[in-house]
Specification:
- With 365 residues, the protein is an alpha+beta fold.
- The protein is 17% helix and 45% strand.
- The chain contains 6 helices and 26 strands.
- It has helices spanning 7-17, 71-78, 130-140, 196-205, 259-270, 319-327; strands at 2-6, 32-38, 41-47, 51-58, 60-63, 65-70, 85-91, 94-99, 102-109, 125-129, 155-161, 164-170, 174-181, 189-195, 212-217, 221-226, 229-234, 253-258, 278-283, 287-294, 298-305, 307-309, 313-318, 333-338, 345-349, 355-359.
- A hairpin with a 3-residue loop joins strand 19 (278-283) and strand 20 (287-294).
Length: 365
């Protein structure tokens, strides 16, 4: 194969796909990229068998062909040469790259050993704006479980309906749910569980843009198509828990606080927390008091202005879980909804609609 392309285009493409490469001693081919010279474009693919990413860049192709090459080697070279036109050619099982005074002859691997990235045959198509999909992922990704004891909660649950999209995640200690109005093209209802790693890659590559993402959905896999990028992923098999039944509908105590003030106090309290990251919150009519202590660090108490309706309450939480929720609420004021000492809190924005964040309390000894 022989082609010409721009260094900056190739650099960007390599940065897009290389996160999908794998490090598997029994399948070393997974650490390679698959390069294919097509008519007027260069196709670059990577996969770790769980996720695959494909992208294209413009090229002047003089001879078609394909090759497999170590991701780290070609990226390390391309990332460190200057912008401009480069020549790429295969000769005698090497990939020769030339640009002015820069030359690299990189050993290749037989492209026949590169895994085939499965094609999505389904015609089940969903369209959504990039910024909406990115926001839905951002709001929920931190709450997904990180261990595999319950595989079905190690991803983000997507539920597309005719006029809305709900995303949700939980690790059994907290739950995040986000709902947006949705007017894309879809069937009446589509739901699936997207692995967290795929969601992370999507979040990295999506833009805050009105441009659309096309989703092709199969029984066990999905493809996201946008900006000359295709991301293929397996879906998590299993039934997502009926989480909506645990979201409280009625509350005895409602407390309104300033988001930024609450975050600042939690950051201070974190300095004095023990290994369990637990803090005590004492809720009164006019303020809340946040207490953290550790036998090896000392004790910290801070008061925060608040407006409370309902009885006073003392309750313990993991401060990190509270901060994760606060950072995802796009509102100046936060409403904390409580019932009893050992029941979860529901955190919502005073004006923001659609985002619910629930945290289980830490049981006091």
């Amino acid at each position: 194969m022989k082609l010409f392309c721009l260094q900056e285009n190739l650099k960007n493409a390599l940065n897009i796909v290389e996160k999908a490469t794998g490090q598997n001693p029994t399948l070393p081919i997974l650490s390679n990229l698959f390069l294919e010279a097509e008519n007027s474009q260069l196709k670059i693919s990577a996969t770790n068998l769980e996720i695959g990413i494909v992208t294209w860049i413009p090229s002047k192709t003089e001879e078609k062909g394909e090759v497999c090459i170590q991701s780290k080697i070609i990226s390390g070279f391309i990332n460190n040469i200057n912008n401009g036109k480069i020549e790429i050619e295969t000769k005698n099982k090497t990939l020769n790259i030339k640009k002015n005074d820069y030359t690299a002859n990189i050993l290749t691997t037989d492209s026949k050993n590169f895994p085939i990235i499965p094609k999505i045959k389904s015609t089940k198509k969903i369209k959504i704006k990039q910024k909406d999909l990115k926001n839905s992922i951002n709001k929920t990704i931190n709450s997904a479980a990180t261990n595999n004891l319950k595989p079905e909660i190690t991803g983000i649950y997507f539920n597309f309906k005719k006029n809305s999209l709900k995303t949700a995640s939980t690790d059994s200690f907290r739950l995040a749910e986000n709902q947006i109005d949705y007017k894309g093209i879809t069937e009446d209802k589509n739901s699936f569980i997207l692995p967290t790693k795929t969601a992370q890659e999507l979040n990295r590559l999506l833009k805050e843009s009105e441009d659309e993402v096309v989703l092709l959905l199969d029984e066990n896999q999905i493809m996201f198509d946008f900006d000359n990028i295709q991301i293929f992923s397996k879906l998590i098999d299993g039934q997502y828990p009926n989480y909506e039944q645990i979201i409280p509908k009625n509350f005895k105590t409602k407390t309104t606080v300033k988001k930024q003030e609450f975050l600042n106090v939690l950051k201070i309290a974190s300095v004095f927390c023990g290994k369990n990251n637990d803090i005590k919150i004492k809720i009164n009519k006019k303020n809340i008091e946040i207490i953290s202590q550790d036998n090896e660090k000392g004790e910290n108490k801070n008061e925060l202005n608040a407006k409370t309706d309902g009885p006073n309450l003392d309750i313990n939480f993991n401060y990190k879980y509270l901060m994760d929720g606060l950072n995802n609420i796009d509102d100046e004021n936060i409403i904390l909804n409580f019932n009893e000492k050992n029941t979860p809190v529901l955190m919502v924005g005073q004006k923001e609609v659609g985002y619910n964040y629930i945290v289980m309390p830490v049981r006091s000894v």
